[in-house]
Design goal:
Mean pLDDT: 92
Shape: globular
Distance between the termini: 26 Å
Number of helices: 5
Low-confidence stretches: none
Largest sheet: 5 strands, mixed
Order of helices and strands: HEHEEHEHEEEHE
Number of strands: 8
Strand order of the largest sheet: 4-2-3-5-8
Helix content: 25-40%
Length: 174
């Protein structure tokens, strides 16, 4: 992960080797372990599938079958907000062959498919160097923070990254 991030031009990141019981800890205990200012800085990457996907409208960025979403642990994915934002994003970029609202329905993929698409185990997913290329969507609440912590590619590795640098990597902030 370190080599990938350095080659990608990231300068403000830190990898932390967490104890094996990291996911048994409360969010407050994880915050303390990572020395984060609050639990708002603790995030996760999830893979969502557009279960209403129609190949007729296919586009790798504006109408993908799968997306990765970086969200705070303290937040819930807002599917309707995500669909609305993604559809507006597509409509502003695509002149023809726009997918109707009925062709957007994002749902969490199962662990097996998540591993297959990301190349990472459960609790290790990071939006970097995914096995299958897909857009990276970032919750708008994250952009207010100086940095965030999330999976670093292994269940025991956590990655701290500067949000200004990370926003350059993300495809969309919703």
């Amino acid at each position: 992960m370190q080599t990938f991030l350095q080659q990608a031009g990231y300068k403000n990141f830190q990898l932390f080797h967490a104890p094996n019981n990291y996911f048994d800890l409360t969010l407050e205990q994880r915050r303390d372990l990572l020395q984060a200012p609050s639990i708002d800085y603790l995030c996760k990457t999830i893979i969502l599938e557009n279960s209403a996907y129609d190949e007729k409208y296919q586009h790798p960025i504006y109408y993908p079958k799968y997306i990765s979403v970086v969200i705070q642990y303290v937040s819930k994915i807002q599917s309707e907000k995500l669909v609305k934002y993604y559809r507006n994003f597509q409509n502003s970029k695509v002149q023809e062959n726009k997918a109707p609202r009925s062709k957007f329905h994002f749902r969490l993929v199962n662990d097996g498919l998540s591993n297959e698409l990301s190349g990472y185990d459960h609790n290790a997913i990071t939006p970097f160097n995914l096995k299958v290329e897909m857009p990276v969507i970032v919750s708008d609440k994250i952009k207010q923070l100086e940095y965030i912590w999330f999976g670093g590619g292994h269940t025991d590795v956590k990655l701290r990254i500067n949000t200004d640098e990370f926003k350059e990597f993300a495809d969309i902030t919703y």
